[in-house]
User: Fold these one by one.
Assistant:
Number 1:
Amino acid sequence: MTKTKMEEKEEIILDELEDEDASENEEVQVTKPEKTQVNHVDDLPGVGAATIDKLKKSGYLDLMSIALATPGELVGACEIGETTANKVISLARSNMQMSFLSGAELLEKRKQVLNISTGSTEVDKLLGGKGIETATITEFFGKYGSGKSQFAHVFAVRAQLPLEKGGAGGMAVFIDTENTFRPERIIQIAEGLKLNPEEVLKNIKVARAFNSEHQVLLAEKVEDLIKKQNLPIKIIIVDSLTAHFRAEFIGRGTLADRQQKLNKHMHTLMKLADTYNLAIYVTNQVMVKPDMFFGDPTEAVGGNIVAHNSTFRVYLRRGKKDTRVAKLVDSPNLPEGEAIYTVVDKGIKDA
């Protein structure tokens, strides 16, 4: 029995409705996946590829950086709408394990901290007994010739030593802002430690920063060395931290902008230190306080921004004859004190 045109038309309409129902069900399954933990920016549900690309290009490479951002920051940096910014931040925060840890858990986490020796027993004692720590920012400040860059070269070599010899068993990144890095000095220190100078130099990644923007960018690029090239970076050295900021931002009118930019730069370094358990060693310039009539008028550049972001702060100065003095001025768990050291061909040693 042949079908009438009316019956054929009704069947076509019913088929179309069934297809629509199926597509709606598929959409529901896509937009409402099972709750799984998202660990990467690429996996954020409901966020388009174009938005993810903008986030990455603006430096928001992980969920933590997005979760800690404000909608205004994302709107300005990524050129996205406020609604999209709020959505992305909300998704990042909901997928972050932003919970409290007990003191016992933190103590267990502290067992993963490594130390890099200075080469001087006295200076190591000043810093807790084993040298500078990973997962922290250590700042050495002082006048020219006080030994800041000497320590930078020493740490770049000693970070490559195995753990049992006071090293971290990894590579170093040296961000040079004042043209202070000297491979010849690295060779001297390496030979003093009976290491292969060529291998030591290969394990130090050096980049010359020509302005503050370049310096900030280089610090952000360190994550690519770790994640994309799988390099075992164990220390980032910035010599010096404030030279470009001090030269470019002149006058009180630019002070707020300088401090804000410097603060963001130090937060980038701290995030790298905490995420990848590596040490951050920064050198800092000093200035003389004109309103101080008694005591040492020398003060580190950068004000409270640098002071609050540095976990350990050490003031270096020249001592008697050929000695130098290291003074611990700030630490979360160590008392103030002083240590006397000298600079020799092999690096740093006790006076």
Number 2:
Amino acid sequence: MTPYYADDLVTIYHGEALATLAEMPNASVDVLLTDPPYSSGGMYRGDRAADPLTKYRGNIDGGGLVRDIGSFAGDNRDQHSWMAWTSAWVWAASRVLAPSRHAFMFADWRQVAAATDSVQAGGLIYRGLLTWDKTEGAGGRPMRGRFRQHSEFIVWATSGPLAELADVYPGSVITVASEPHTTRLHPTQKPVALLEHLLRVVPGSDRVVLDPFMGSGSTLVAAKAHGQRAIGIEAEEKWCEIAANRCRQEVLGLGA
């Protein structure tokens, strides 16, 4: 495979996740950390088929005018199809994940049940559900008589029993404010601090982090901050270029 971008720590591939994973060697990465399309954002099929910028605009800028940061593909499956697709790519990713390693997959509340089933169907051991608290001021608009949805979830799994443990004791609720809309490069961009927190349980700086749904590259930036190597896969070239530019800035010492 020819990388779209590469430096001393980061490699980016422009391609579809399943096809690219099929070309990667067995047991060649140490962490799976990814935020795949949720195919969520509504209660009905018609809602879920809407453009992601329409579905998630409340999370992007509080429901006002969305900045021109572009939409993304692959977010329009119904739940049955989403679960089948997720099981397939998790299976492909589990082949390239070394034994006794961590896997983290983001999901929202509508897809949690399907996500936990999918990681197990894909051959991983489900370890637990972590909660990302975006803080009340940063996520979810108030709704009269209802609980505000200002959290997302991370399905935590491993590729078999853990052989080595980092000397940390993190909690299962992670409080990090959402990426501000003024600095967001991708509609569903995760803050680097959140991804760094997840990587705390991964011992050693010689690990390789894989994100098969890379988006704007926040996982790659977080891995680099830990001195770890990272591999990103992304089907849409515009996001490959944005992620590559962020990594180039890191190389030049200009920040993320």
Number 3:
Amino acid sequence: MSVHEQFAEDLALYALGALEGGDRASLEKHLEECASCRRELEQLRGDAALLALTTSGPRPPARAKSRLTDAVAKEPHFRPAQMRAPLWGVLGWLATAAMILVAFTVSKQNTHLSSTVAKLSGMLEKQKSESEQARRIAEVLHAPDATSYVIMPVSMKNMPPSGKAIYSRERSGLVFMASNLNPLPERKMYELWLIPMHGAPVPAGMFKPDAHGGAMVMNPPLPVGLEAKAFAVTIEPEQGSATPTPPIVMMGAGG
């Protein structure tokens, strides 16, 4: 047996990472000087990679498995029966690693894509909602029958709260703005009431003032075609009330 043939028999083990110790060092030194063995090593590594992909990809050429198993069978240090388990164990590990890598990459890409789609959908819905809200407010403000109601406090103390409601009976639209509102006790909210020409007051929205005492109510659900005589504000439980609870904090008629 020539020196070249001796190292050729170890190439299969080296291609699978199963050659250790002095044999590995000798082969690596030989590979530095032998271009033929280097080419053979690259071919064996390619064959191993093709075999590893058989569990998740296209079937490799039959010659790949044949060349690699023939090379392993020639190895003098182990009997063929002993080499079978380590060989296919390594190939199985390569296949599993490849599958995990592909699955992780696809999963990551799908997660990123889903997140991006969700964010874009949220942005579109928000813009659509804001656009619709702006359109509704503009309709109320420019409605031919839009009436302004200046809502003043019933009792004057310090810097009194004030408010203004713009109501369109034709469009059942309402925009209410208030300022200098006093802070509320826990579990309490202000409630706006539409006082109709006939009948009982109608709830027209719950609100809490911000840190500067300001608040807004925009287009609450109201009965169609209801004629308003005045608007009033009371302090109610957080869940709201069916009828106003005295005392009335603010009230104003149309002008």
